[in-house]
Amino acid sequence: MTVVVLVIAALVVVGMLAFVVVRPLRTRQREAPAATPVARPPTRAEGLGGRIRQVFAGKAATDEEWSRLEDLLVRADVGPRAASRIVERVRERYTPEADPASLMGEEIAEALGGDVELEIHSGELTVIMVVGVNGAGKTTTIGKLASWLRGQGYKVSLANSDTFRAAASEQITVWAQRSGAHLISQQRGGDPGAVAFDAVASARARGSDILIVDTAGRLHTRQPLMDELAKVRRVLDKAAGDVEEVLLVVDATTGQNGLQQARVFTEAVQVTGVALTKLDGTARGGIILAVREELGVPVKLIGTGEKLEDLQPFDPQAFADQLLRN
After folding, report:
1. Which DSSP state fits 312?
2. pLDDT band at 189 (very low <50, low <70, confident <90, very high)
3. Going by C-beta distance under 8 Å and a sequence separation of 6 or more, which residues neighbour residue 92?
4. Which tens digit of pLDDT belongs to each residue from 59-70?
């Protein structure tokens, strides 16, 4: 019995000593100073507008800084010639008290402005021919345009002049159904010009206000295909008296290749306006400044997604503001 008591007493003493030793260690562990945070580089100004302000920082600008500003625009796909002209105009207006990003936005909007609305004739059939390379979103743009025009009270017909690609007929049929437009189509393999010619007569017979003609997507580097497209334009001019709009669908992510596309299509069919697609996500679309500056072709429509309502008339100032935020 005495031995048991002694053992218990010894265990109590050991426990008390452990409590005294361990507790301060745990306390010191909790109260240890936090590790010194790792130094991080300063956050870069967000967007093109922020980077422009960093270049100038409220001071008189040097030639080197103006050159840096030009480089910023080029990296936004504006193109070297258009960037040079815009920077020159901003430079003429700049003072250290001015906000360089605001000046830039005003000059971009000015460069893109003017005759940006679709030309639609009241009281007679308006013909809109839509062209573009494969994958730019041409037929999707047509469907959304048809829906938007119907929302404005117009009676719209669609013509499928892309007669060789089976998927083209299926795609435009779906978009005609979604938009509520009347579809004019012929059997696969027919002559695209003949389809376009018959479509004009059919649209008039139905009392349509607007006829939108879809054409086969094609590489702008293939001259025989461009010659065929020019033939469709001539046929439409003959059948309708005049084609009010030839819209070139340009993918906003194509960069400087979009300028060459616009140049070749304009030479072939006299493009009157651009529909800029895929402006959702990270696309910047600065290429349209180069198209406007070098070819004189305005943007008239922008697409921002895949939904039926994701098409808007082009607003130069809103686009300039968005470009500076990216």
Report:
1. E
2. low
3. none
4. 778 899 899 899
